[in-house]
Amino acid sequence: MLKFFATCPKGLESLLNNELIELGAESVKETVAGVAFSGDLQLAVKVCLWTRFATRVLLTLGTFHADSDIEFYNGAYSLHYEDYFSNDATISVDFNGQNAFINNTLYGALRIKDALCDRFVKLTDARPDVDRENPDVRINAHLDRRNNVTVSLDLSGKSLHRREYRNVAGAAPLKENLAAAIVARSGYTGGSVIDPMCGSGTILIEAAMKACNMAPGLFRTAYGFEKLKGFDAAAFNAMKREASATAEEGKRRLKDAKVVFHGFDRDETVIEKAVQNAERAGLSDLIKFSVCDLHDLKNPVTSGNPGMVITNPPYGERLGNVPELLELYTAIGACLKREFGGWKAGIISSSEDLLSCLRLRADRVYRLYNGALECQLRTYTISEAGAVRTGDESSSGDGEYTISSATLKVAEEFANRLKKNLKKLEKWAAREGIEAYRIYDADLPNYNAAIDRYGSYIVIQEYAAPGSVDARVAHRRMLDIIQVVVAVTGVRGDHVIVKVRERKKGDSQYEKLNETKHTMLVKEYDASLIVNLWDYLDTGLFLDHREVRRMITRRSAGKSFLNLFAYTGSATVAAAIGGASETTTVDMSRTYLAWAKDNMMANGFSGKNHQFVQADCLRWLDLPGRKYDLIFCDPPTFSNSKRMEATFDVQRDHAALIAKLSGKLNVGGTLIFSNNNRSFRLDEEAVVSMGFDVTDVSEKTVQEDFKRNKRIHCCFILTKVRDAEIPAELAAVDFGSAANMRTRVDYLKGDSSGADNGGRTRKDARRGRTSGQTAGEGRTGERSEFSGRGRRSDGEGYRGHGSSRRSGEYVRERRMPEAPVLTGDEEQPGRGPRLKRRIKSTAGGEGDKE
């Protein structure tokens, strides 16, 4: 009696084990990714023809132990290959495993081939030829951890999952044996089968094959065993004729019983492929395919006999995007309840989150592997009570927003609030001429997130739930938020970016979220500003400071402007657009200064009157230098950065900071001072004693989208009416010596003749935004290119291509000159409620910025 081993994907072993027993195999023993069994060659041929789950069937030639290379060779040489094939056959050797003397699978295969050929030369004076692509005989060798080597003949030829009815497939096709396993594990034993997302039809074809008892290998053109000695071609042909007759009888039986196999997909091209596959499988008269979106699907079975819904929806790894898939899985669950009451269902996915959106209680859960991807197959019984047919759509009443009723019911309160906010804010934003704004800010306590719109993109920032809220509940609510946002806003799922704002410890709090280096432009009044929605917790633009930037634009005409703690320089852009005669932008981060330069050049500014200074902002104030007419300062709440000599606390040190800023401000000049400490209190007495008039404009600088959170920031206009002596206690505050501080000064190259208007006129600025043309020849030492089509220009600096500069049309193709590092007080994260900014110190300390 011969020994065999049938391989299969992980998770299919027990199915294959039972199948082999039914086919007559003996000594059946299940193991990982396969099943061993015994029988004669005729049984192995039958298994190759009839197996639904095996990948290969291997005939074991022998097993030997090898602790050295010579033992390995001798063991391979001792096997009786000549009993199964002659030296006229072409061969190929597949080898897996390694040990101390075989550390390369190619070497292991080579040694097996050498031993085999040497044996044939010894016996017949001739050796077989090697054909790696299409050999007559394929030898399989496996080396285990105990140095045991098993050498086998592959009876399958091509992998047995290839039934050869599928020459064309969809974007992410299932292997046929996995599809057969899904059908079997779903509990299907007969009756109608519906696949609402059928793709190229593999699940339906495998289900129909099972139902009519069709041999899966009936349409294969070749097997590995056909080249072996002892193969009985006449017996094999008789076996196939019998299998064909059995299948025909099964098909007649299914037709008489009016069993329905119906697949749906919204992609017409994929449906055409499915139809072709069914025809090649000889099942076109049993299986029907239709183009239909899931939301419009109706149960095609009208007989009242319940059947099964079996489907393989997209998971996100290869098809789709998680935000849009959440809504899709919700729609699948709603469709099952609405149309298939009393039916069974089997649904496979790699995501428990997505499966949870079905909102169905699973009967059974099976672990299967789609390639290397671990998946869950969940089976369900759809309640009869769930089969209530209702309209698929629900609208707001004015036709402005239409979403699926299933999604609406998932988080109805949140969906209604979001619809209400959008209705108001979209009109406001269009009227104001802004593309980036907040549409939801933790309005409802159970849905604790901030949601911002950036043109055609949505950024969802989840605030970490308090300890009193169960983590599973919070996670479920976040999934609800994502799917409702996709449904209500109508944005594409791959245009939704999800982030979590939470306190972290150690270096993990400064890690990048991604490494896409993809940026886009958004419009804000007369400015176009660069944002990165993907790589960091913050996007490069503080939305709550929008009105502050507009205030700067209105106050900057003909004035010299200083932007301290500048971040990405959006305030500098605002000043330049307002007609500032010159600007100075100071920040500790080289990366953010590069971003600020890009922002300026994207708005058409150039010239030496726009300077950029990389320095410790607090120590830089002690350097001698010019004074300014307008200063904007937005410091962190707290910083003990390793690049700063002293710690900084905005509540404790703001008066001392303003004292130093006073030395940089002309009499009659204005200091706009802001921060995000929600409990901040300005020391007005001290500030007035320095010669300032004080106006609190905190509430006035909060625009429509932040009105629910009027303390999102503090902002004061300090007008210097006179020079005054700085109080001794403030003058004594030491933020570190500027004596040995490294300072790097850069500027925008180009014609500086426009000093009176910041390098361009307001008319030029508006024209640039309309035509997509930007001026300037680049900046010192580095080059960036923005184009209307997101392409790199072949000249210097920035050049437009005449396309409209709407949001998202500008794509930054070059890499940042230095990868941003979220450390130091250059970090300016999070203008959201209850968010504290964490800043890294030399000693590993942490600080907060609210």
Give your account of this protein's structure:
- The protein has 850 residues and is of the alpha/beta class.
- 29% of the residues lie in helices and 22% in strands.
- It contains 21 helices and 34 strands.
- The strands form 8 sheets. Strands 30-31-29-26-23-24-25-32 form an 8-stranded mixed sheet, with helices on both faces. The chain has a 7-stranded mixed sheet with strand order 2-3-1-4-7-6-5.
- Strand 19, helix 13 (471-489) and strand 20 form a beta-alpha-beta unit.
- The longest helix has 24 residues, at 233-256.
- It is elongated and about 110 Å long.
- Mean pLDDT is 83; it is low at 386-403, 503-512, 751-758 and 761-850.
Keywords:
850 residues; 7-stranded mixed β-sheet; 21 helices; 22% strand
Write a brief caption for the model.
Helix content is 29%, strand content 22%.
List the helices and strands and how they pair.
Blueprint: E1 2-7, H1 13-22, E2 26-31, E3 34-39, H2 41-50, E4 56-65, H3 69-77, E5 91-96, H4 105-124, E6 137-143, E7 148-154, H5 176-185, E8 193-195, H6 202-211, H7 233-256, E9 261-265, H8 268-280, E10 287-291, E11 308-311, H9 322-339, E12 344-349, H10 352-356, E13 362-370, E14 373-381, E15 393-395, E16 402-404, H11 405-410, H12 412-432, E17 436-441, E18 449-454, E19 457-463, H13 471-489, E20 496-501, E21 520-524, E22 527-531, H14 546-555, E23 560-564, H15 570-577, E24 582-587, H16 590-602, E25 607-614, H17 617-620, E26 628-633, E27 638-639, E28 648-649, H18 650-662, E29 665-675, H19 684-689, E30 692-696, E31 714-720, H20 728-731, E32 744-748, H21 762-771, E33 839-840, E34 846-847
Helix pairs in contact: 3-4, 5-6, 9-13, 12-13, 14-15
